[in-house]
């Protein structure tokens, strides 16, 4: 599966196309995930989030637009080992959606 990187410098049309064709979205908590509105129903979302900003009701955002949400709690966004350790969550998200 090819990996596409969203940098935020894309045009509106490029952004819309990128998210509409995503098989899975993986990224840190933040404004870039607002583009999830362009995703197809059922696109899994793996969100890296720290416990200091995590709120249980955040999962309802993705669920209200039918996107399965897989949070990965990190001690900080600099926690490289924790991010790399999230592969199990990413694999589970892919498996649950039938992409693997």
Question: Can you put this structure into words, describing what you see?
Answer:
The chain is α/β, with parallel strands linked by helices and about 100 residues long. It has helices at about 10-20, 60-65, 80-85, 85-95; strands spanning about 25-30, 45-50, 70-75. It has a three-stranded parallel β-sheet with strand order 1-2-3.
What are the salient characteristics of this protein?
100 residues, alpha/beta, three-stranded parallel sheet
Q: What is the N-to-C succession of helices and strands?
A: HEEHEHH
The biggest sheet, with number of strands, parallel, antiparallel or mixed sense and barrel status, is: 3 strands, parallel
Number of contiguous helices: 4
Radius of gyration: 13 Å
Please state roughly what percent of the residues sit in beta strands, choosing from under 5%, 5-15%, 15-25%, 25-35%, 35-45% or over 45%.
15-25%
**Number of DSSP strand runs:** 3
Q: Name the shape in a single word.
A: globular
| End-to-end CA span | 9 Å
Topology of helices and strands:
Blueprint: H1 12-20, E1 25-28, E2 45-50, H2 59-64, E3 69-74, H3 80-84, H4 87-96
Parallel strand pairs: 1-2, 2-3
In short:
This protein has 100 residues and is an alpha/beta fold. Helix content is 30%, strand content 16%.
């Amino acid at each position: 599966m090819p990996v596409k990187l969203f940098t935020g410098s894309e045009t509106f049309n490029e952004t819309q196309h990128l998210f509409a064709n995503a098989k899975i979205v993986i990224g840190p908590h933040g404004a870039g995930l607002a583009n999830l509105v362009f995703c197809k129903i059922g696109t899994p979302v793996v969100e890296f989030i720290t416990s200091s900003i995590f709120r249980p009701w955040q999962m309802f955002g993705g669920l209200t637009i039918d996107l399965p949400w897989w949070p990965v709690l990190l001690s900080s966004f600099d926690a490289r080992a924790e991010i790399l350790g999230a592969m199990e969550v990413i694999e589970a998200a892919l498996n649950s959606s039938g992409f693997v």
